[in-house]
Structure formats: structure tokens, C-alpha cells
Write a structure and sequence with these properties.
By secondary structure, this protein is mainly α. 76% of the residues lie in helices and 1% in strands. InterPro entries: EXOC6/Sec15, EXOC6/Sec15_C, EXOC6/Sec15_C_dom1, EXOC6_Sec15_N, EXOC6PINT-1/Sec15/Tip20_C_dom2.
């Protein structure tokens, strides 16, 4: 039950007692006064007034009690005050006495205090001095080392500075770590380390930039040294060969025994150059690399340095491997490209051998393989633009020196020599193109007539250049003529020059004599079978080349074909590989010149037939004439005279060629005359025209029987006109009964007369007889004759139809 509840209950029971209880509660301070007062005011009306009355009565009671207590103790208080006043007088006397005594003591102890303070101060100073000396003895070495560090930094001795920092941190700073200056030093060391890293890295960057700029100079020096070493080795080998008598002709030009002076001069130059040999260390200061490597090693960050170095060098490698767009135009462009690459890898090789782990063999091999693939791709692309064989040859020499140089530093270069075989094919192609122009010029300048010789000197000069032997010609007096034209010795000389040029590329390829011999023979075969053959065929096809020139070309090819064996001997002398070797390639000159000769022969036949056609086109027959002129046509006589003069020129040709040409001409003439008779545009032919035509054919037969070209047996050449002869005889004699009776018999008099041919000509004559009345002399038998012709025509048509059905 709460306090308010209790107060309310009490007011209901006994108001007076209740107010007393409330006052007791208020004085006790144990219960909340707010609840007690609220119960007084809330329970009954006028309770407030009654309560105040009770409260005033309580106050009066307390006041009375207080007054009683004061009255009880007042006398004692008065007595105490009186005694205190008495004591105050004594206390003042005592104070005066104490003060005086204190003054006398103070005056007596002042001097002692001053001396004691002096002693204390001296002792403190002495102790401080001792402490300072001890601390200075600890701090001085630290300060000296730090001063040394500063001096090393100022003189750029960064590696020593890092070592000094290690000593400071491990030895000196722990002794004086409690001092502020030491903390400042400790805090400054990381900054110094970073400064050293930045400075060393800056020096490394300068070094990398420097070697990038000087790579070509480094590479040029390395390649020059490799070339000098190679020259020295080759010279030594040649000296040994000369010493042991192994002399032979090189390129058929310079005997090796004459090289002794050259060898001596080469050795003298080698001795002079020994003192001038420069190494990569002479050209490049590698100290920034060493210093930076040591610094990063001391700082424990060697891996970062290695990664940075390799990354930067790979970037430089890509720049070095990137060629200029016009590199293929000059040999200097290729040389600059090679020297930069050599310089790059010479530096890497030096770094590999003088540092521990900065670059490894695996890293350099990987870098070289990447570079080699790029180099091969670049060379393959740029060399394809080279059209000058001299430039390709210089490129080959540069590649050989480039490969030999890097091989000397331990880099594998087999793929470069494989590339040289590809470039060799391209070199041969450029040579073939160049010599194609040479051959064309020779053919253009040739007069296609036998070479006139007026003196022994001229004859000797030509024989020394071209292997020609003819005992009968040698016996003839001067002046005389060689059968070939000027182009033959020139072609032979140029083929040898081509072999020389091809041999130049084969040198220094580290190939055996057998392989070089095979290369020379294959390239020479290409020259003969493709270039020279193509030039000959183009020459033969040219319109301005006449029959006389074609005859001379055939003679020339014959002599060039005979000279092929001397070319094989020439190659054998160069390579010292016998032709009897199993794998020796043979020259294909025989087939080349035979093909050219066959083409020339075919062109002779063609041009001869064309000339015949030109003469035949001049024919102007009057196909309706009643009587012949009594002599052969003018165009035919001119044609026969032309053929006689041409066939006289053919006497220099091989017999079969001249015979074939003559037979071909007669057959073509016979065919042309036959076609003239059977021309579809020719609608009618008189007997007089047939008789005139017969006179022309008789001249052709006389020409054939005169043996314009020797070698024909019997009347072989006359058989070319047998078809015409039998046809004309059939119409001239009008022997149709015999023809029709003997048709199809092997012994027929008109065996070569085709029924279709006879029918065509007969119809042309039948139409003429109707218009011009050819058979006027037989006028009384005209009707019978017409019937006879009609009968013959019908029988010929039946024969023609029978042939077509049989076919």
C-alpha cells in the first residue's frame, strides 16, 4: 500500500494523530514528501489549514527546545572565551620569541646553504659532463658514419652508401636509438634508399638509351672482327694449300700459287690490326648496369630490376628488328639493320657472361629465336623486292657475315643459312632476268651472217673465247669465214660469266664442293633451258627475222649445242667434282638447242609457206581464155627463182632440214595451186585456162626434178605435184572412161584424183561450155558431148555419194 494511501486512511481515522504522523514522515526524509503533502491537500477540505496549524505548533515546540539547549551551554561558552583571551597574550609573546629565534637561525645558516648549493651544483655539472662524454662517445661513430654516408651520396658511390646504411641500421643506430637525431636519421634512410634507386634507375635508362644509339657501332665492330677472323682463317687455309702443292684454278681466272703475295699481304694486315681490336667493353661503359644490379640486390629488389631490364631490352629488340620501309633499296640499309641487331645481341651476350642471373641463357635463346623469326620474315619480304643481282649478292655476303658473327657468340644460325638457299633461288632469278636482257642485246646486235676472219690474230682471239674446231677451215687461207655468227661466242662467254656470278653466291655458304657443283649445274640448266631458250624462241618468232636469219640461227644453235660439253668441263674445273660422280647433274643444253632448232625449222617452213602464199596471191589467171599463152605465168617463175635462191642458202643446214623445207614448200605450192582450181568463188574454167595452168604445173615439176636440194632419191620431190598432174592429165586427155573403169584399183592411172575434186572442176568447165561454147569444133557432135559430160557428172556424183555412205 502506497504512502498516499496510508495518509488518506490515517486522516479518516484521527485527524490530529494523522497530522502528527504526516509531520513525522516529513521530518524523517525517508518517504517522498510530494506524496505526503498531496495526501494532506487532497483528502479533506480545510485539511490545509489544519495542517498548517499543526505545523506552526510543531515549529514552536522546536524553538523552545533550542532555546533550552542554548541556555544550558551558554556559561561554558563564556568561560571558554575568557580563557582564550588570556592565552592570546602568551601566544603573542611566544610568537615574538620564535620569530627572533628563527631569524638568528636563518642568519647563521645562510652561508652554509650557499656553500651547499655550490657543492650540489658542481656535483650535478660533474655528473652531466660524465654523462655527456659517455653519450658523445656513443654518438660520434654514428655521426661519423652518417657523414660518411652523405659523402658517398655526394660522390655517387651508391653501392658503398647502401653498405654504410646497413652498418648504421644494424650496428650504430641501436646504440643511440633513444635520441631524436637518431630517429631523424632512421626516418631519412628510406628516402635515401629511394633516391639511390631512382638515381641508379635513371643511370640505367641513360645506359639503355646509349647502347640503343650505339648498337650499330657495336655491331659494325663485331662484324668487322668476325670478317677479319674469317679472312685470316681462309688465308691460313690457302697458305697451307699452297704449301702442300694443292694448287688449282679458281674460277678459271687466278691460280692459287699467284696468291702467295696476296696471302702475305693479308697476314701483314692481320698483324697490324691485332693491336686495334676493340671489344664491347671498349665501346660501352657497363658500370651503370653493374651498379644498378648491385644496388637492387642490396635492397632485396633484384627481381624487379631484372624484370625491368628484360622488359626494356625486349622493347629495344622490337625497335631494332623493325626495318626501314626502303631498306631493300641500298646495301647500306641492310648493313645498318644487321649491325644494330648484332650490337644488341653482343651486349646481351656480354651481360650474360659478366652478371649473375640478370639475363640467362634461356632468356637470350628465347629472345634470339623471336628475333630470328622476325629477321627471316623481314629479309624474305624485303629481298623479294630486289631486282639487282649485285644487290642480292651483297645482301648474301652481309647475311653470311651477320650469321658468322652471331654464331661466334653462341647463337644458332642454321635457319639463316636455310634462308640463304631461298635467297639463292631469288638471286638466280635476278641473274636469269639480267642475262635475259644480255641475250636479247646480243641477238639484237647480231647481223646473222658468218663471222669474217681476215688474220690469224682475229682467228686466235675468237678461238680463245669459244671452243671451235674445224680442221678443214684451219687449212683455208685468210680471209675466211666461221660458220657461226657473232652471237655464238658472245653467248658462250656470257654463259660462263653467269656461272661466275652464280658461283659468287655459293661461296661462304658452308657447303661441300659437291653441293656447290650441283647448284652451279642447276642454275646453268635454268639459264639454258628457260632464259636462253625463251630468248631464242622469241627471236625466232620476231617478224623481222627472215629465212636467211633463221638458217643462221639453226647453225648457231648447232655450235652452241656442241659447246655444252666444254661448259661442263668448265664447271668441273671450278668445283673439282668429276662428271662421272653418281649424283652429278648433267647440263640440258642439248635439248635446249634442239628445241630452239626445231622451232627455227618450223618457223622456216612457216615463213617459206607464207612467202609462197605471197607469190601465189599475185596470180592473175584469165579463167575464160580460149587459148594458153604458151609460157608459164610470171608470178610462178618469180616464185621458182626465189625458191632456188633460198634453197642455195639451205646448203649450210643439216641435210634433213633442207630436204624437209624443200618438200614442205613443194607440197604447200601444190596444195595452193589445187585450192586455186577448186576455189568456190571460181565459177567457171575454160580448157584454155586449164592448159595455161598445166604449163605452170610443168614448171613446178621441172623445178622439183632439178634437185634444188641434194639428197632426194629419184622423183620423190616430184610426187608433191602428183595430185595436180593426174588431175590435169585427166582433163587434158579427157580420159574419163579409163578413170571410171580403173577407179579404186591400186594400179589406176588416175589413182590420186579424188572424184569430188574431179566433179567440182568438171562442173566449172560444164558451165563454161554452155556459155562460151568451148566445144564448137565438135559442133556436129555437140549433143553427144553434152550427154557424155552429163553421164560423167552423174557417175562422179554416184562415186562421191558412195564414198560418203562408206565413210
Amino acid at each position: 500500500m502506497s504512502a498516499a494511501g496510508k495518509s488518506g486512511a490515517m486522516l479518516e481515522e484521527d485527524p490530529d494523530q494523522t497530522y502528527e504522523n504526516v509531520l513525522a514522515e516529513i521530518q524523517s526524509f525517508e518517504l517522498p514528501i510530494e506524496a505526503t503533502l498531496r495526501s494532506v491537500y487532497d483528502d479533506q477540505p480545510n485539511a490545509h489549514k489544519k495542517f498548517m496549524e499543526k505545523l506552526d505548533a510543531c515549529i514552536r515546540n522546536h524553538d523552545k527546545e533550542i532555546e533550552k539547549m542554548c541556555n544550558f551551554h551558554h556559561q561554558g561558552f563564556v568561560d571558554a572565551i575568557t580563557e582564550l583571551l588570556k592565552v592570546r597574550t602568551d601566544a603573542e609573546k611566544l610568537k615574538v620569541q620564535v620569530t627572533d629565534t628563527n631569524r638568528r637561525f636563518q642568519d647563521a645558516g645562510k652561508e652554509v646553504i650557499v656553500q651547499t648549493e655550490d657543492i650540489i651544483r658542481c656535483r650535478i655539472q660533474q655528473r652531466n659532463i660524465t654523462t655527456v662524454v659517455e653519450k658523445l662517445q656513443l654518438c660520434l661513430p654514428v655521426l661519423e658514419m652518417y657523414s660518411k654516408l652523405k659523402e658517398q651520396m655526394s660522390t655517387k658511390r651508391y653501392y658503398s652508401a647502401l653498405k654504410t646504411m646497413e652498418q648504421l641500421e644494424n650496428v650504430y643506430f641501436p646504440r643511440v636509438s633513444q635520441y631524436r637525431f637518431c630517429q631523424l636519421m632512421i626516418e631519412n634512410l628510406p628516402k635515401l634508399r629511394e633516391d639511390i634507386k631512382e638515381i641508379s634507375m635513371s643511370d640505367l635508362k641513360d645506359f639503355l638509351e646509349s647502347i640503343r644509339k650505339h648498337s650499330d657501332k657495336i655491331g659494325e665492330t663485331a662484324m668487322k672482327q668476325a670478317q677479319q677472323q674469317k679472312i685470316f682463317t681462309v688465308t691460313l687455309q690457302k697458305r697451307n694449300n699452297v704449301k702442300f702443292g694443292k694448287t688449282r684454278y679458281i674460277n678459271d681466272r687466278i691460280p692459287e700459287e699467284r696468291n702467295e703475295v696476296v696471302l702475305k699481304h693479308a697476314f701483314e694486315e692481320e698483324d697490324e690490326n691485332e693491336e686495334e681490336v676493340l671489344t664491347v667493353q671498349d665501346l660501352v661503359d657497363f658500370s651503370p648496369v653493374y651498379q644498378c644490379l648491385h644496388i637492387y640486390s642490396v635492397l632485396g629488389d633484384e627481381e624487379t630490376f631484372e624484370n625491368y631490364y628484360r622488359k626494356q631490352r625486349k622493347k629495344q629488340a622490337r625497335l631494332v628488328l623493325q626495318p626501314q620501309s626502303n631498306m631493300h633499296e641500298t646495301v647500306d640499309g641492310y648493313r645498318r639493320y644487321f649491325t644494330q641487331i648484332v650490337g644488341f645481341f653482343v651486349v646481351e651476350d656480354h651481360i650474360l657472361h659478366v652478371t649473375q642471373g640478370l639475363v640467362t641463357r634461356a632468356y637470350t635463346d628465347e629472345l634470339w629465336n623471336m628475333a630470328l623469326s622476325k629477321i627471316i620474315a623481314v629479309l624474305r619480304a624485303h629481298s623479294s623486292y630486289c631486282t639487282d643481282p649485285d644487290l642480292v649478292l651483297e645482301l648474301k655476303n652481309l647475311i653470311v657475315i651477320f650469321a658468322d658473327t652471331l654464331q661466334g657468340y653462341g647463337f644458332p644460325v642454321n635457319r639463316l643459312f636455310d634462308l640463304l638457299f631461298e635467297i639463292r633461288d631469288q638471286y638466280n632469278e635476278t641473274l636469269l632476268k639480267k642475262w635475259a636482257g644480255v641475250f636479247r642485246d646480243i641477238f639484237e646486235e647480231d647481223n646473222y651472217s658468218p663471222i669474217p676472219i681476215v688474220s690469224e690474230e682475229e682467228y686466235t682471239a675468237i678461238i680463245s673465247k669459244f671452243p671451235f674446231q674445224d680442221p678443214d677451215l684451219e687449212k683455208q687461207p685468210f680471209p675466211k669465214k666461221l660458220p657461226m655468227s657473232q652471237s655464238v661466242p658472245h653467248i658462250y662467254i656470257q654463259v660462263k660469266e653467269f656461272i661466275y656470278a652464280s658461283l659468287k653466291f655459293s661461296e661462304s655458304l658452308h657447303r661441300s664442293s659437291t653441293e656447290i657443283d650441283d647448284m652451279l649445274r642447276k642454275s646453268t640448266n635454268l639459264l639454258l633451258t628457260r632464259t636462253l631458250s625463251s630468248c631464242l624462241l622469241n627471236l625466232i618468232k620476231k617478224p623481222h627475222i627472215g629465212l636467211t636469219e633463221l638458217v643462221q640461227i639453226i647453225i648457231n644453235t648447232t655450235h652452241l649445242e656442241q659447246a655444252c660439253k666444254y661448259l661442263e668441263d668448265f664447271i668441273t674445273n671450278i668445283t673439282n667434282i668429276s662428271q662421272e660422280t653418281v649424283h652429278t647433274t648433267r647440263l640440258y643444253g642439248l635439248s635446249t638447242f634442239k628445241d630452239a632448232r626445231h622451232a627455227a625449222e618450223g618457223e622456216i617452213y612457216t615463213k617459206l609457206n607464207q612467202k609462197i602464199d605471197e607469190f601465189v596471191q599475185l596470180a592473175d589467171y584469165d579463167w575464160t581464155m580460149s587459148e594458153p599463152d604458151g609460157r608459164a605465168s610470171g608470178y610462178l617463175m618469180d616464185l621458182i627463182n626465189f625458191l632456188r635462191s633460198i634453197f642455195q642458202v639451205f646448203t649450210h643446214l643439216p641435210g634433213k632440214v633442207a630436204q624437209t623445207a624443200c618438200m614442205s614448200a613443194c607440197q604447200h605450192l601444190s596444195t595452193s595451186l589445187m585450192q586455186m582450181l577448186l576455189d568456190s568463188e571460181l565459177k567457171q574454167i575454160s580448157m584454155g585456162a586449164v592448159q595455161q595452168f598445166n604449163l605452170d604445173v610443168i614448171q613446178c615439176e621441172l623445178f622439183a626434178s632439178s634437185e634444188p636440194v641434194p639428197g632426194f632419191q629419184g622423183d620423190t620431190l616430184q610426187l608433191a605435184f602428183i595430185d595436180l598432174r593426174q588431175l590435169l592429165d585427166l582433163f587434158m586427155v579427157w580420159d574419163w572412161s579409163t578413170y571410171l573403169a580403173d577407179y579404186g584399183q591400186p594400179a589406176s592411172k588416175y589413182l590420186r584424183v579424188n572424184p569430188n575434186t574431179a566433179l567440182t572442176l568438171l562442173e566449172k568447165m560444164k558451165d563454161t561450155s554452155k556459155k562460151n561454147n568451148i566445144f564448137a569444133q565438135f559442133r556436129k557432135n555437140d549433143r553427144d558431148k553434152q550427154k557424155l559430160i552429163e553421164t560423167v557428172v552423174k557417175q562422179l556424183r554416184s562415186l562421191v555419194n558412195g564414198m560418203s555412205q562408206h565413210t
